[in-house]
TrEMBL record:
Highest taxon of source: Bacteria
Segment forming the signal sequence: 1-26
Compartments in which it is found: Cell outer membrane
A Pfam short name: OEP
One cellular-component annotation, GO: cell outer membrane
Topology in membrane: Lipid-anchor
Protein name: Efflux transporter outer membrane subunit
Thylakoid found in the keyword field: no
Keyword Transmembrane: yes
Ranges that cross the membrane: none
InterPro entries: MdtP/NodT-like (IPR010131), OMP_efflux (IPR003423)
Organism: Venatoribacter cucullus
GO terms of molecular function: efflux transmembrane transporter activity
Length: 486
């Protein structure tokens, strides 16, 4: 057996200390936590919300916020959608792909080896010969500058970014489901309210027609009653269409798998009765807990490591390689110890000049890092705008609700008194119709504002990033172990 050259071993030993001298420190990550702290909210404080930055948020108030709506059917609907929504399942696959790609990205820094073997035969007029060979080759590029750590950190950041994008998709999906459910119940309530209005308008028209026949009123008053009746009837089809569209939207969100919930959803019910958890707190760092903000934060982290890797391309590289090979006339000769040849080599390489390609690559990555930081700042500003818009809308609708409730009470009293005075001959028929119109409008306005309040809560919880905490991703069909990652 041929031994490895002592001179080659000695030269390789001289190169190995470079692995210690070349260890680089970890790059300094930008401090993004400071930028996510809101010092002051430029908005009014709605009822049931605490905007004191010194207080801490209760994670449970965000995790399953829709359960505070006291609607068991809505809870079942959300779980049904989470289990069957195709877009969410696609986001889950994207996350799993990111995990696989991270493994591929870091595998390049591990030792590589391959085994080869072959046999050949030749024939001539005088002789026949055969030969066999086998070889084992291995190589490894030593991590002089910490490139392996940088690549691992970059891959992990990309995985976390994909995970946060999955969480963001889940937050949006839950908010969309709850809003569609509110729209469905609003359409059903409006349809019921319109049906009752049509009945009231029909009674008024019948009364006007009877009085016209008896000579107690004019044809104008009968025409006015008929006009109001037809106008009220014309408002019914849009509510029926809105109800159907809300049902179709929920069906699509659930991947066409509403199942037993379909019949329950088609049964008219009132709008959910929602009361926020006592003292819902919006902390100073509410923006940072949003999954889309965290995803952009991970993008900054990954790009920081990309700058490091680009710099390392300009540094020397050290590689080790070795091989075992043997050949002979037969395979038995190949396994003869004396036929084995061993080689080991060390290679130190440094780019002396490349026309500035590597330097420009570093600058490119630095500019992309600056761009990523600007995108992060833009995401923060958008997040703060969405939260404050939701707070402003909620505070406004809450104040309107009290006024609408008082207006309805007044309209009900006015309609009752108008009916009594009309029967006593103290009020004209036109004035009676006006009182009825005011009553119907007051009922519709109160119902619509109630829906707006619920929609404002949906927008607020969505803007705070609520909805993914504590929930698990449904297992894919090929996940034998049923892997569910939060």
């Amino acid at each position: 057996m041929k031994l490895i050259s002592p001179t080659l071993v000695r030269h390789a030993a001289l190169l190995l200390p470079l692995t210690l001298a070349g260890c680089s420190s970890a790059p300094e990550q930008p401090d993004l936590a400071v930028a996510t702290t809101v010092q002051d909210w430029h908005t009014q404080t709605p009822q049931g919300v605490n905007l004191d930055p010194a207080d801490a948020a209760d994670p449970s108030s965000l995790a399953t916020w829709w359960q505070h709506w006291q609607d068991p059917l809505l809870n079942q609907l959300v779980q049904q959608v989470l289990a069957n929504n195709p877009s969410l399942a696609s986001s889950g696959i994207s996350y799993r792909l990111a995990l696989l790609q991270a493994g591929v990205a870091t595998a390049g820094f591990r030792p590589k080896g391959n085994l080869s073997t072959g046999i050949s035969a030749s024939e001539s007029d005088n002789t026949d010969s055969t030969s066999a060979n086998a070889g084992l080759n291995a190589s490894w590029e030593i991590d002089l500058w910490g490139s392996r750590r940088a690549a691992r950190e970059q891959a992990d950041a990309n995985v976390q970014k994909s995970l946060q994008e999955l969480h963001a998709a889940q937050v949006s999906l839950i908010a969309e489901v709850v809003q569609a459910y509110v729209d469905l119940r609003l359409a059903q309530q409006n349809r019921g309210l319109t049906t009752e209005s049509i009945r009231l308008r029909q009674q008024s028209y019948d009364l006007a027609r009877w009085q016209r026949q008896a000579g107690l009123t004019t044809e104008l008053q009968q025409a006015q009653a008929l006009t109001l009746l037809r106008q009220t009837e014309s408002s019914l089809p849009p509510y029926e269409q809105a109800e159907l569209q809300a049902l179709q939207q929920l069906q699509a969100l659930a991947g066409g798998e509403l199942g037993e919930l379909s019949a329950a959803l088609q049964t008219p019910q009132s709008l959910p009765s929602f009361s926020a958890p006592a003292g819902l707190t919006i902390p100073a760092e509410v923006l940072r807990q949003r999954p889309d903000v965290q995803a952009q934060e991970q993008a900054v982290r990954a790009q920081t490591e990309a700058v490091v890797l680009a710099r390392h391309q300009r540094y020397p590289s050290l590689g080790l390689s070795g091989s075992l090979s043997a050949s002979g006339e037969t395979y038995s000769d190949v396994f003869d110890v004396d036929a084995v040849v061993a080689r080991i080599a060390a290679n130190l390489a440094l780019v002396l000049f490349d026309g500035g390609v590597l330097k420009q690559a570093v600058r490119t990555q630095q500019l992309q890092l600056e761009q990523s930081l600007l995108a992060y700042r833009s995401k923060l500003l958008t997040a703060q705008e969405e939260v404050e818009n939701a707070l402003t809308r909620l505070a406004s609708t809450q104040r309107q609700q009290q006024s609408f409730a008082q207006a309805l009470a007044s309209a009900e009293l006015s309609a009752s008194l108008s009916a009594q005075q009309f029967e006593a001959g103290l009020l004209s028929f036109s004035e009676l119709l006006d009182a009825q119109t005011a009553l119907l409008n007051a009922r519709s306005a109160l119902l619509g504002n109630h829906s707006n309040i619920l929609g404002s809560w949906v927008q607020l919880y969505r803007s705070m990033g609520g909805g993914w905490q504590g929930l698990t991703l449904p297992a894919l069909a090929f996940d034998a172990a049923g892997d569910t990652r939060e």
